[in-house]
Specification:
The structure is a single chain. With about 120 residues, the chain is mainly alpha-helical. The chain has helices spanning about 10-20, 25-30, 40-45, 50-60, 85, 90-105, and strands spanning about 35, 65-70, 75-80. The chain starts with 10 loop residues before the first helix and ends in a 13-residue tail after the last helix.
Amino acid sequence: MTTQTPTFNCPVEATLSLIGGKYKPLILWHLIDGPLHYMELQRRIPTATAKMLSQQLRALEGCGMLRRTVFPEKPPRTEYALTPFGQSVIPVLDAMCQWGEQYLEDQNLPSPCSAGNPL
């Protein structure tokens, strides 16, 4: 079995292949200030089903953006943290947040969170 190297038509496509989707940017955003347990991520992203959250976490771990640590306790607890590679996307997330804040303001919509400070 051979692994194919992905090909991209532009850098935006490469970026979206890693952080695209409804929940990946939110997961990364919530991990900016430090590691979180699975249940805390679930509380902070209530619209994500447990199955979808787990899939997105696995994908982010698989591409090297997250580190998953399982603590051998009863019951076991799992913690997720940004890797150095994952931290490299913080400026992109900050830009998305600033753009979103301006969009909400232009539309006269309330901002449900404060910029630069995940829930």
